[in-house]
Amino acid sequence: MVLSPYLEIYDLVIPKDNILRRIKELVDFSFIYDELLEKYCLDNGRNAISPVRMFKYLLLKSIFDLSDVDVVERSKYDMSFKYFLDLAPEDTVIEPSSLTKFRKLRLKDMTLLDMLINKTVTIAIEKGIIKSTSIIVDSTHTKSRYNQKSPREILIECSKKLRKSIYSVDENMKNKFPVKNTVDKLEDEVKYCHELIEVVENESTLTDYPKVKEKLNLLKEILIDDVEHLQISKDEDAKTGHKTSDTSFFGYKTHIAMTEERIITAAIITSGEKSDGKQLKKLIEKSKGTGMDIDTVIGDKAYSDKENIQHTLKEKIRLVSKLNSSITQGTRKKEDEFEYNKDAGMYVCKAGHMAFRKVAQNRYKDKRNPRITYDFDINRCRVCSMREGCYKEGATRKTYSETIKSHIHIEQEIFQESDFFKAKTKERYKIEAKNSELKHRHGYDIASSSGLIGMELQGALTIFAVNLKRILALTK
User: Fold this and answer.
1) Which of 37, 169, 251, 416 could form a disulfide with 143 if both were Cys (CB 3.0 to 4.6 A apart)?
2) What residues contact residue 302 under an 8 Å CB cut-off, 6+ apart?
3) Distances in whole angstroms, Cα of residue 382 to Cα of each of 239, 339, 399
4) Closest among 238, 242, 271 to 148, alpha carbons compared
5) 380-421 residue pLDDT tens
6) 3-state helix/strand/coil string of 166-216
């Protein structure tokens, strides 16, 4: 209970249709308290900051795409933030470092992603928003915060951006900055960054400029929040994925299931090299676990492999996914070691290397099914860390083959020509729009921290935010 003689200020300055007011009225956040109860000691130490309030801070970060420092700073003067955080207008705010501790100590080992999605879907069902029995599936990629650069290169880049923003304000600051580090050691670069931050913070007039303050906060957050990752190496959980045969990214994939009303019902976060089609079973199971009835799944060609068709038939679900002869194989060896990339039209080995050529072999004359052979770069295979059991010493060529058995897909081919299939295919654009919203409005194009755990936390909060926004839009 918040007791203050100034609470009426909120009714005067915060409109009834303010998004934070509407979210607060929509969601009972006490479930966060219940979920985190075991993470706190109830009979030792001083009283903790409310876990609900700490969670709301993280949610504000996701909704408005802010850093720890900036979200706390804004909560000092933004009345809608204070109202959402259950603070009185005159109350003080937390220290930004508390958010780092909350993420690492309280949210560790939690299934936060599934819990938050289930909460929003439950609200949508109770409000009567979800009326369809179809889910649309797809994946979106998120680049690693550190890409494939070394930790020292990341710090050099961030410090350079900070200096550049300062020079646009005062070029004379060049004489006050510490001497740039020229030694190729991470420890020396970290030391230089700390010295640079100290100089900038001593110049109070500089930090009044938003462009300087934002670059300063970003450098500080990297040093404080992810210093242990910087000292180890680049983002070890991130992997190289391929969008086409010519373009790739280093980071993660978020596999999403969404209703036709654009409410996300399930999400699975993996490293970047994982195949889309392999996640379909889990997405269906998780969506059903929220209380949804599913009779149709809509996806692109990545989801039309034999295993998925058989699974959906067994579950009495119609699979609206066009067949592709390259992924609807009948039988092939080492299915767990080679995964098909539908964007590039090539197979990728377990080390993340993509085939550079494929050749079709028609073998109808000897009454055998046709085969497609994929060639890999043998020079890469010779030095690959996973070559044991895959590469034979002295080999001049590394290939992988699949046999096409189109006759087992006859029913799916007939279904593919139906009016129902063609009508449902037109719904797939909705998930592309949702992926765009995640990336461009909520900063989901780049990971906010390193490691798969950090990516799952970011995904959980971002999806929770966009689902709440969608529910509010549909109930308005």
Assistant:
1) 251
2) 275, 276, 277, 321, 327, 340, 342
3) 20, 20, 14
4) 238
5) 898 888 888 888 888 889 988 877 655 556 788 888 889 999
6) HHCCCHHHHHCCCCCCCCCCHHHHHHHHHHHHHHHHHCCCHHHCHHHHHHH
CB atoms under 10 Å from CB of 196, counted, come to 22
User: Residue type at 248?
Assistant: S
Amino acid at 204: S
Phi/psi at 255 (nearest 5 deg)? Answer: -90, 125
Rounded to 5 degrees, φ, ψ at 307 are -65, -40
As a whole number of angstroms, the distance between CA 27 and CA 25 comes to 6
pTM: 0.71
Per the CB < 8 A criterion, the answer to whether 136 and 257 are in contact is yes
Cα–Cα distance measured from residue 412 to residue 318, given in angstroms and rounded to the nearest whole number: 9
The confidence score (pLDDT) of residue 330 equals: 47
| Pairing mode of beta strands 296-298, 134-143 | parallel
Among candidates 399, 393, 342, which has minimal Cα distance to 374?
A: 399
What pLDDT digit, counting tens, does each position of 411-440 carry? 888 888 899 999 999 999 999 999 999 999
Number of alpha carbons in the 13 Å side-chain half-sphere of residue 225 = 22
Q: Which residues contact 449 (CB under 8 A, 6 or more apart)?
A: 145, 225, 226, 229, 455, 457, 458
Count the Cβ atoms, other than its own, within 10 Å of residue 341: 23
